[in-house]
Design a protein that fits this description.
688 residues; alpha+beta; nine-stranded mixed beta sheet; 23 helices; 29 strands; 39% helix
């Protein structure tokens, strides 16, 4: 799929950093006091002054940003950057990974006699194989296995394909006493079975396999292969089956690609939202309450409230109305919607209330449908746009739970649109615009977009499928977004658009979805009165932007590494008094900053300034200010700002000016450092 979004890629990191440094240095030598010295300060009320000051600063920010981006855009992208290939676009890489998996399995069975093998596919960043060894593997075994793999690679053994009958394959498998291969054979539908050998005369190691492979083991780049980890895995993912041991590995075309992959792996570990969530005291999973249930701590709850408030405001401004629906419903509702039949394994068990069966909700959709059906509708009432931050509950096996990414209770940012066929394209386009606005607010401006079309088994007429698909595609074209097409990848009840966001280290995350639904309007017999008085079915769109608050929050933590955008940071400024003698001035600053809507706190005290600074950096507070005699005498703040994982010394800024600028930053998507260092010159009175 292509990339979408209006956000530009910008200058390469080193160039952008250099340009930003030069740009800020130039700004630093210019005064930021011209606005306060203008006639406007002397003639306006405090309320008018604050509004005018913000407008002036935003104008300066916009001009400054254009200057910087113009400079950045004069340079080409960094030609030395390593772009890692993927299996979809590089069959040679896929062959390397598949063949390396076979070499690893061959090495394991040579070193650990009696080990049985199961499946061994290539995966997104490498490969794995599942084994049943006589004794469990240890992490230290990985080095031994890699050395044996290197020996096999040096032998330049050919990979050759052989086609045999099912009976012959079964005979050979039983002869080798490989019970898991026999289960794999039983799952293969074809009577012609392919076997791939890794030996000169097809008389050595082999496995059931459909290919493809490289020519010989000598074609594998040993220096670009690494074994990464050992994990437990059920046979075929069935928790009722035997537990095997899985060895994960990675393979690339050259050592530079491997080095870049390992660098990204280390970076991903540094950004792990589970560790950062604990370090920054944002959330926890309390096992005493049960797995997969999120506890939002005060700082995390502040951020969640900011997310929810922004989301609600954006939807109200976008023509949506808000709904709030129950957490459970009669089992009859889920039977009518079809969830009971098609989604039963992902739902928690039913509960009985006064002889009636109830089900805690896994979805919000049927509730919105009931509200639509509650009132007779005319074509003049459409479109109807309803949005809800609705908490749902789904059964997930304990082994699948993963921090905020895979939980049992989560809040969907759900919305449903009921519209006329003639309104469909514009409604989808409106959703795409809203998706872009919301994702951009959180710093995500690069997307991968996929349009999924009608599968073989589907409900609904050909004409309605053609209309919905054409409307989705037409909206994407009008939006100007690149997209791929997943032929036959839509749900049985309608086509859809999936939007993946790209994070700071290039990973993609599925978040936003726009899904047409021909099923629920039919099941619930939804209707509206058309212009000619006949009853018609409305078109229904499901859509989510975050996907879920929990998962999106986890992605935000990892993309920012905990250095959150200033506007959503739980604490935006921390004051670090040199001693308690300076605490009264800190209290004065705190009151003024809170009056401006900023989130500010004073260090708890009882520790040295150096310790306070260390803790502020550990807590990733965007701004901190050491307060001593100089700051009190000058009624100023000496500010340090976190930026791109480092620190920027903003110097000494008049206290009220600093607060005014932080207020502007808090109400925009600009970083605090950009606003605090922006040029203050210009005709402020005219701009106001």
């Amino acid at each position: 799929a292509g990339s979408g979004g209006s956000g530009r890629g910008g200058a390469p990191p080193d160039l952008a950093m250099l340009l930003m440094t030069v740009f800020r240095a130039a700004l630093f030598v210019r005064t930021v006091a011209s606005f306060e010295s203008s006639a406007l300060v002397r003639t306006r009320s405090p309320f008018q002054l604050r509004a005018a000051r913000q407008k002036h600063l935003l104008g300066q920010i916009e001009r400054s940003s254009r200057t910087l981006m113009s400079a950045a855009d004069t340079k080409d992208a960094d030609t030395d950057a390593i772009v890692l290939p993927n299996n979809d676009d590089n069959e040679h890489l896929l062959r390397i990974r598949h063949s390396t998996a076979h070499v690893m399995a061959m090495a394991v069975q040579k070193l650990f006699k009696g080990t049985k093998v199961s499946i061994g596919p290539w995966i997104e960043k490498g490969f794995y194989y599942d084994f049943d060894p006589p004794e469990p593997f240890k992490d230290t075994d990985l080095r031994r296995i890699k050395k044996e793999m290197d020996k096999i690679i040096k032998l330049k053994l050919p990979f050759t394909e052989e086609v045999v009958t099912r009976e012959e394959a079964e005979r050979r498998i039983k002869e080798q006493d490989e019970p898991y291969k026999l289960e794999i054979l039983n799952r293969i539908k074809s009577d012609k079975i392919t076997i791939w050998h890794t030996s000169k005369n097809q008389d050595g190691w082999w496995d059931l396999c459909a290919g493809p492979h490289v020519g010989t083991t000598g074609d594998l780049p040993s220096e670009a292969i690494a074994l990464e980890s050992i994990a437990g895995a059920y046979l075929f993912g069935d928790e009722n089956g035997p537990m095997l041991q899985r060895i994960y590995g990675t393979a690339w075309e050259n050592k530079d690609q491997l080095a870049e992959h390992l660098r990204l792996q280390a970076e991903a570990k540094r950004r792990d939202h589970r560790a950062l969530g604990k370090q920054l005291n944002l959330f926890s999973i309390q096992q005493a309450a049960g797995g997969g249930l999120v506890f939002w701590h005060p700082k995390g709850a502040i951020m969640r409230n900011m997310m929810e408030t922004y989301w609600k405001d954006a939807h109200l401004q976008g023509g949506y109305e808000l709904l709030n629906t129950p957490h459970m419903a009669s089992i009859d509702l889920w039977k009518t919607s079809g969830h009971f039949d098609f989604y039963k394994d992902d739902m928690f068990d039913r509960m009985e209330v006064e002889g009636a069966e109830y089900q805690i909700k896994p979805m919000n959709c049927p509730f919105h449908v009931l509200v639509f059906k509650d009132t007779p509708r005319s074509y003049r009432d459409l479109p109807v746009r309803w949005a809800e931050l609705g908490t749902v509950y789904r059964y997930e096996r304990s082994g699948a739970l993963n921090g905020l990414f895979r939980v049992r209770g989560f809040t969907q940012d759900d919305a449903h649109i009921f519209c006329l066929p003639s309104q469909l394209t514009q409604e989808i386009l409106g959703v795409l615009d809203l998706v872009e606005a919301v994702l951009t607010k959180f710093g995500f401006m690069q997307y991968e977009v996929m349009l999924s079309t009608r599968p073989d088994k589907a409900i609904g007429s050909d004409s309605i499928w053609e209309l919905a698909t054409a409307s989705l595609e037409g909206a994407l074209k009008e939006k100007g977004w690149k997209y791929g097409i997943d032929e036959g990848g839509g749900a049985f009840y309608g086509p859809k658009i999936d939007i993946k966001i790209k994070d700071a280290i290039g990973r993609t995350w599925q978040c936003s979805t726009i899904q047409a639904d021909f099923n629920l309007p039919e099941r619930f017999e939804l209707e509206y009165t058309s212009a000619d008085g006949t009853k018609e079915r409305p078109i229904m769109l499901h859509r989510a932007i975050f996907g879920s608050l929990e998962r999106f929050f986890g992605v935000l933590i990892e993309s920012t590494a905990g250095d959150f955008p200033f506007w959503i940071a739980p604490i935006q400024l921390r004051l670090l008094p040199v001693s308690d003698d300076f605490r009264p001035y800190c209290e004065e600053v705190l009151a003024a900053a809170k009056a401006a809507g900023l989130r500010i706190e004073i260090d708890q005290g009882g520790r040295s300034v150096s310790k306070q600074i260390k803790v502020a950096n550990q807590d990733k507070v965007p701004l901190y200010a050491v307060v001593g005699e100089k700051e009190i005498a000058g009624r100023s703040l000496s500010l340090m700002c976190r930026k791109d994982g480092g620190l920027v010394d903003l110097g000494e800024i008049p206290m009220q000016d600093a607060i005014n600028r932080m207020e502007v930053a808090s109400k925009s998507t600009m970083s605090a450092v950009d606003v605090l260092l922006v040029d203050g010159e210009g005709d402020a009175e005219n701009e106001a």
